[in-house]
Every structure is written in C-alpha cells, then in structure tokens.
Amino acid sequence: MQDKNPKNSVKLTLSGLFFFSLPSIFGSLLEPVTGIVDTALIGHKSTTWLAALSLGVVILSSFTWVFNFLIHTSIQSVSEAFSLRDNQRVNSRVKVALILSVIVGVGSSLILYFFSPLLFRFVGASEELLPLCQRYFHIRLLGQPFLILGGTLISILRGFERIKTCFILIALSTLINSSLSWALLEGTDLGLAGVAYGSVVGAVFTAIFSLIFVLRVEGLSLTSLWGAPLKGEWISFGKNSFNMFCRSIILTGSFFLCTKSAARLGHVSLASHQILMEFWLFSSFLTDGLALSANILSAKYKALNDVENYEKMKGNLLKLSQIIGVLFLLSYLLFKEPLLSIFTKDLAVIEAIESVWPWLAISQLILCGTYTYDGLLFGLGRFDFVRRQMFYGLIISFLPFLIYSYYSKDLLSIWLALISLGTYRLVIGYIGTRSLRVNG
Hints:
This protein has helices at about 15-30, 35-45, 45-65, 70-85, 85-115, 115-120, 130-160, 165-185, 190-215, 235-265, 265-305, 305-335, 335-340, 345-355, 355-380, 385-410, 410-430. The chain is mainly alpha-helical.
C-alpha cells in the first residue's frame, strides 16, 4: 500500500523523534483545552450552571476514557499492517476498528441516556441541579457516537503516520468547539445547552473530516471498506480490545477509589486532591505524545522485524521522557507557589497539598518513563501482558497503600498508592519491552 503523500522515514535521533512526536504532544495538550474553556465560560455566568456542567463532564469523560482501548488497538493494528504494505489487511483492520467504534459509540450513548438519572444521583446531583444536568447531558449524548468514531479515525490516521494531519484536525475541532460554545452562550438564550451544542458540532467535524483524510490513503475507499473483514481479524482485534478495556477499567477504578478516599477525609482534602490531579494529568497529557510515537513505531519495527531501529527508537524516546520528567520535577519544585495560586489561595488546602507536593514532583521522573513504556508495550501488541500486570499491580502496589490510608487518615497515603502503581507499571514496562520478539 502506497501513500498519496509519501513521507521520509522518521529520524531516530533525539531531535528527530522529538519533532516527530511534537504534533502528537500538542494534540494531546489540546484535549483538555475545550473543557477548560467551557468551564471558564460557564463559570463567569452561573455557579449553578458550572456545577451541572462539572457533573455531566465527569460522567461523559469517565465513559469515554474507559473506551479509549479503541485508540491504542487501532494505532497498533493499522501501523503494523501499513508497515508491511498489506493492502488487504489494512482495509480489514480499518473496517473492524470503524465498525466497533460505531457499536461502542451508539451503545454507550443509549446506556448513558437510559441510566442518566441513576448516574447523576450516584455522583451527588441535587434535585435542583438534576434538570440542568440532564439537559446538558442529553444534548452531549448526540455527539457521543461521533466523538468515539472521530477518536478512532484519528488513531487510524496515526497508524498511517499522518501525525501533522491529526494535530490540525484536533486543533480545528477545538477552535470550532470553543468558538461556537462562546457564540451560543453569549448570543443566544440557550445557556448551558449552547455549550453542549458546541461540543456536539466539534465532535461531528472531527469524525467527518477524519474519515475524508482516511479515505485519501491510496488503497482505501468506501467501496474497499465494504464487505466482511479477513478471517480472524474480529477475534484478534476483539481480544486486544478486551485486554485494553480491562486495563482502562483498572486505571479508572483506581482514580475513582482515590477520589472517594480523599472525599472521606473532608472537603479540604478532596479539594487538595483535585488540584493535585490537575498537575498529575497535565504531565501525562504532555508525555502521551511520546507514548503515541512509541506505539506507532514499535508496531512498525515489529512488523518489519527491525531490531536495530526498534532499540534505537526505544532508547531515545526513553531519554526524551526523562528530559521531560526532569523539567516537570524542576518546575514543580521551583514554582510551587505560583502554580498553586492558579487554583487556590486557601491556606488549609495549600497546607494539605504541601505534604504530597514533593512526592508528586519526584514521581514525574517515574511517570514520564511509565507512559512511554506503555506506548512501547501497545505497539508490540502485548495487550494480554498489560492486562495481567495491571491487575497484579492493583493488588500488589496500589491497594496496600489505599487500605493504609483508611487508618492513617492522610492524603499522602492515597497519593503513594497512585505513585506506587505508576512505579510498578514502569518496572513491567521495562521487562515487557526488552526484546522486539515477544509473545503474550
């Protein structure tokens, strides 16, 4: 299979991999921007609206994140077949990914619609907030299938190494979403619904234009995607997706348990925990760009059985991850006060954060490596290994600290549980990526 716009091979130097990863890094950083903009817009209008928005976003983002297995499995499977120039297998894998994304998108929307009252009561929505929550939520559900489909199509494009195209699509979607949300909020009486419609339009735009760019790849067309996939593709993709789904459930569950544990300690600890999570997630979004490159290139070199370039790529991506880790470490240690002032000036909250802050800063050295190893494992197709090890990590490294937090009644124990799980993932990442020729 040939590309209509052939690209030079990726330079496997530190600078070459950095510039290859840069569009993915920017794209990853743009992901939370829409939420931040929506929060800022609504926050200046009504605190009640902001509370309703927050509850709706929590439920939607949790469900969307659980189904992000479509992202990792799509990148790996398409990149592997594309590297071998296997036209038939590429068509088959793209077809399976798209069909599954439509099923997941429509299915999750229906589940969220019918169970929305129960879900909102579970997250603590009051009777006053419930009508506002449901109005915003039900409109957003119109875009949920397009959001899942668009994310899968972006991943397929990444499998074809269309990194810059993906960044442009994400940037335009973010701009359209934010601009339309502002226009509808300020220029109409739609209120919170206007912000929801902006998100729906952004999701539809991403899905439609991502599909157009996918179909521009030579050998792919609507007619070529018609018909049954190759024998075994459903089983292979389904098995990998199931393994990644289990991983997502474990990670989402661990974050949820930490939040519940922090809430048990009181509102000050919960507020402190949420602020710490913002700094944790920001570094993960940045390093996710390296993980995406690791996924794409590992799948490529595994397909080509190119051990030399795999080892070179792995070594330099890990070096880049440590450079980013050091930058975060220094930034968090040197600029603690101005960084915290962005979120709070409450002395009680700041005092609670200070007990965890040095650990959060030091953990960046570990976590940036962890995220890159995740991408390498995905690219090698070691999804079953990842699922099993995530379960072991939950039992061995996460739960002991979390259980201890019930006795110690401090925020640090909760965060040590998260950091310990990240450290375990780093170790198993090192073990699972030592060789290009791995199975299971």
